[in-house]
From TrEMBL:
Homotrimer. The lineage of its organism: Bacteria, Bacillati, Actinomycetota, Actinomycetes, Kitasatosporales. It catalyses: 4-hydroxy-4-methyl-2-oxoglutarate = 2 pyruvate; oxaloacetate + H(+) = pyruvate + CO2. InterPro entries: RraA/RraA-like, RraA/RraA-like_sf. Its cofactor is a divalent metal cation. Signal peptide: none annotated. This is Putative 4-hydroxy-4-methyl-2-oxoglutarate aldolase. Pfam families: RraA-like.
């Protein structure tokens, strides 16, 4: 798996998204963005889900971090809420120290300066300072979560960069990597041909650009 993960990590999310489209798998998480365009993350998903506090009124965030293996990408389901945060500076500091690859939040984060200062990759729906303590409660760890209509299963391979976040099912990872690598080769060939004097139309026809994803579905 380490070699396969390295291949996925080297590919842009745009190519991975195209490859997922080509095999009819939905994996692009709409509406999530990095705090910095320089952030990249890739690794197996460690899934967490929050819900609003119940009648007890008690709730906390972050204790699950002790159980996250190094190299994982934490994927937090918080129903897209933007009124309370579920990730802050303490968690950023510990995650960076423990070698966690990054965090993807279906919601918001705070203490943005800590993430930027430590170069810890965070992808979220935005930023907001209000704590989630006593407002949300942890309801599951290591179970599937749904983000932007996409089911993220524990161990699925999460790849994120300046364009956003994609989730590649583990069973399809090899196939997706192969298709995405081919897409990158074709697009590089088109650019090279155009720089050498070909028209864009001619270059795309020569390299089969318009049928690339159609062929990959077969």
């Amino acid at each position: 798996m380490s070699g396969l993960l390295a291949r996925l990590r080297a590919l842009p999310t745009a190519a991975l998204s195209d490859a997922l489209d080509g095999i009819g798998v939905e994996g692009a998480l709409h509406g999530l963005s990095p705090l910095s365009d320089g952030f990249r993350a890739a690794g197996p998903a460690f899934t967490v889900r929050y819900a609003p506090v119940d009648e007890s009124g008690a709730g906390t965030v972050g204790d699950f971090l002790d159980d996250v293996p190094p190299g994982s990408v934490v994927v937090i389901g918080n129903d897209g809420r933007t009124d309370v945060t579920v990730w802050g500076g303490i968690m950023t500091g510990l995650a960076a120290h423990r070698g966690i690859a990054g965090t993807v939040i279906d919601g918001v984060c705070r203490d943005v300066s800590a993430s930027l200062a430590q170069g810890y990759p965070l992808f979220s729906r935005g930023r907001f300072m209000r704590t989630g303590k006593d407002r949300v409660r942890l309801v599951s760890v290591g179970e599937p979560v749904t983000v932007s209509g996409v089911e993220v299963r524990p161990g699925a391979l999460v790849c994120a960069d300046a364009d956003g976040v994609v989730v590649v099912p583990a069973a399809e990872a090899g196939r997706v990597a192969e298709i995405a690598e081919r897409i990158e080769q074709v697009e590089a060939g088109i650019v090279d041909a155009a720089r050498r004097g070909s028209t864009l139309r001619e270059a795309r026809e020569r390299f089969g650009y318009h049928s690339l994803q159609t062929r990959s579905r077969s």
